[in-house]
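Inverse folding, one chain.
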């Protein structure tokens, strides 16, 4: 194979721009986390027998041979692949799937999703089947029956290596292993080469090689740009069909026994997935450990993940962090994100937002979509860095533009609220649509919520209910709440209070206190003789115990007025304070009212004034009216008629009848 010598500027074309957004535009859509990939169909595991799983299809259509991923949904809505496989048979609304590879245990209740490419035939897959090293949970974008195979094992480019190779910064994917007889072997690729470009796709980091290759079929010719010993090379190469599993076992076993780290990692992956060998997590860990102590970054990443999940080893957050740190320091983006997660969540007893921010940034600046998402999240919340909606939007937009569904949803929030970006409801809807199209339930809820509440042409209650129902059927608690509200109000469906209550109950049983709150509200409706005040207290108590501020206020009200419970001012004040501490304005107003009236406490107008002010600043009309009363009568403050009128007017503008009446009594027309 002939190599064409290239001048160094071809590398500079993708690296010399320092602006993050400009750099990012060069690699748009080349790295995609699984939760960000388009989906054709979805199903839910109902039964697992050995390496076969039965699933019920929830949306779309699957056919025999389709590649699928089995997902575990994390508490932060991030999806994590636990296994991949292919459809063995189809039936009436159900399918049988052969589990080809599994990282964790497959159990009923897990979600199943079609892969944009067949994972079992994908070179450099997220499970490192043929020697690739890609971001965990990442899949190629384009579905193909026979994706091309290059036959390499890859690692990230370290800062030291980038310097030695005369690169201005770490870019590309480092070749650490070449499979014998593979297209890469026949083309004369060498260990130590750095892949910089596949056709028109610049490879900014190790995670981007697999998506770039996945766009091409077997036998298709591609142009590859390499860096070798500081010189740029360009060559043509024809991809091949990925060989059978036995080829990989034969190719790497001897090299692994001889101590070659990359081969040990591949053998570890084969044992982990049960590909060509019986699945054996313990053997997988043995081989990964042999490579890790040789400082192989992928092996260190594998061990970090294994110790975090207890996969083949006893779960140990400290060991997980230690191995992830080794890999992260060598520039492994996935390890950097996992390490940052541990610091942010305080796993292993060490919570350090500053360290988390630093590692997310390192991954984000390499183009890692999850790193960009979490960096945006930390800017949004002000964790480890000064809060900045503008910078949050910048990073969310970068991740969203790569197809990251959770980031697309966050961008939708920002455009809907006008935080960090100009308020634009149509753009918000567009981002929600992109995320919802990837079957992200929370995005479906957001999109449905906007459709339901929008004005004019944007309003679409029927579509809103369709979205709520789809998300609710996937078990999303907030979608179940929205379906409950739809049935309660008869919005987009025939009014049915029993159906509403059932949806609220489902949501509450999943730990969503808002479901219990609405059940409490339903119990308090109608004439007093028809109310079930005791049942309302039960529901409000369940929600209040979970910290739901609105239910804490309602529970306080029940104790204040003795509805469904014996009147108890002390308990009323207790629950109001819990809600007030969360910043709920009406709770702050109610505490002020108790101090003004002396309910369970000594009358204290100054304290009443203080609580009313807190609530009034948040726009609480009741508190604004009550402030007017105190100023007009000089209670806890010097009498000031003008100030009283000012507060009455603010409350009146929000429709407060009491404020309007008070203004008229002073001869002022509201």
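Residues assigned per position:
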């Amino acid at each position: 194979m002939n190599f064409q010598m290239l001048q160094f500027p071809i590398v500079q074309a993708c690296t010399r721009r320092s602006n993050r957004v400009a750099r990012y535009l060069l690699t748009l859509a080349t790295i995609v986390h699984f939760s960000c990939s388009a989906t054709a169909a979805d199903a839910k595991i109902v039964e697992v027998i050995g390496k076969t799983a039965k699933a019920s299809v929830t949306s779309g259509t699957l056919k025999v041979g389709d590649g699928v991923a089995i997902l575990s949904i994390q508490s932060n809505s991030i999806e994590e692949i636990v296994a991949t496989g292919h459809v063995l048979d189809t039936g009436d609304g159900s399918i049988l799937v052969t589990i080809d590879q599994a990282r964790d245990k497959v159990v009923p209740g897990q979600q199943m999703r079609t892969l944009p490419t067949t994972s079992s035939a994908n070179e450099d897959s997220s499970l490192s089947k043929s020697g690739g090293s890609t971001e965990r949970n990442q899949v190629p974008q384009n579905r193909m029956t026979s994706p091309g195979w290059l036959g390499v094992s890859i690692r990230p480019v370290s800062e030291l290596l980038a310097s030695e190779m005369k690169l201005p910064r770490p870019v590309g994917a480092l070749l650490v292993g070449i499979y014998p007889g593979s297209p890469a072997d026949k083309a004369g690729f060498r260990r130590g080469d750095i892949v910089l470009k596949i056709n028109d796709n610049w490879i900014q980091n190790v995670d981007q090689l697999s998506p770039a290759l996945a766009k091409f079929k077997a036998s298709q010719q591609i142009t590859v740009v390499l860096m070798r010993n500081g010189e740029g090379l360009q060559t043509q190469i024809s991809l091949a069909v990925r060989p059978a599993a036995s080829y990989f076992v034969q190719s790497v076993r001897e090299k692994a026994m001889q101590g070659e780290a990359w081969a040990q990692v591949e053998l570890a992956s084969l044992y982990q997935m049960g590909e060509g060998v019986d699945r054996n997590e313990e053997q997988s860990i043995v081989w990964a450990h042999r490579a890790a102590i040789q400082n192989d970054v992928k092996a260190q990443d594998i061990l970090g993940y294994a110790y975090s999940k207890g996969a083949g080893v006893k779960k140990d957050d400290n060991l997980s962090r230690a191995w992830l740190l080794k890999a992260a320091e060598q520039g492994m983006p996935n390890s950097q994100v996992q390490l940052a997660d541990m610091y942010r969540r305080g796993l292993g007893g060490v919570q350090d937002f500053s360290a988390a921010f630093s590692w997310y940034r390192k991954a984000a600046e390499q183009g890692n979509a999850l790193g960009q998402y979490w960096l945006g999240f930390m800017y949004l919340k002000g964790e480890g860095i000064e809060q900045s909606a503008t910078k949050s939007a910048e990073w969310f937009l970068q991740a969203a533009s790569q197809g990251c569904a959770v980031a697309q949803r966050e961008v939708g929030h920002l455009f809907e609220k006008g935080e960090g970006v100009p308020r634009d409801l149509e753009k918000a809807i567009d981002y929600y649509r992109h995320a919802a199209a990837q079957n992200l339930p929370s995005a479906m809820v957001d999109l449905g919520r906007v459709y339901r509440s929008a004005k004019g042409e944007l309003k679409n209650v029927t579509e809103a209910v369709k979205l709520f129902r789809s998300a609710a059927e996937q078990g999303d608690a907030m979608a179940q709440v929205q379906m409950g509200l739809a049935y309660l109000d008869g919005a987009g469906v025939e009014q049915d209070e029993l159906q509403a209550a059932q949806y609220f109950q489902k949501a509450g049983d999943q730990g969503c206190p808002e479901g219990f709150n609405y059940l409490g509200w339903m119990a308090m409706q109608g004439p007093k003789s028809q109310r079930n005040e005791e049942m309302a207290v039960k529901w409000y108590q369940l929600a209040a115990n979970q910290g739901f501020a609105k239910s804490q206020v309602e529970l306080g009200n029940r104790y204040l007025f003795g509805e469904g419970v014996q009147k108890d001012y002390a308990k009323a004040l207790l629950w109001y304070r819990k809600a007030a501490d969360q910043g709920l304005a009406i709770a702050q107003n109610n505490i002020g009212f108790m101090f003004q009236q002396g309910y369970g406490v000594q009358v204290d107008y100054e304290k009443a004034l203080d609580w009313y002010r807190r609530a009034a600043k948040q726009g609480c009309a009741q508190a604004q009216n009550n402030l007017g009363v105190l100023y007009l009568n000089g209670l806890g403050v010097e009498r000031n008629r003008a100030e009283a009128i000012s507060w009455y007017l603010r409350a009146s503008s929000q429709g407060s009848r009491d404020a309007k009446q008070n203004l008229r009594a002073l001869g002022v027309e509201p």
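The CA atoms of residues 661 and 667 lie 10 Å apart. Confidence is low (pLDDT under 50) at residues 7-40, 116-145.
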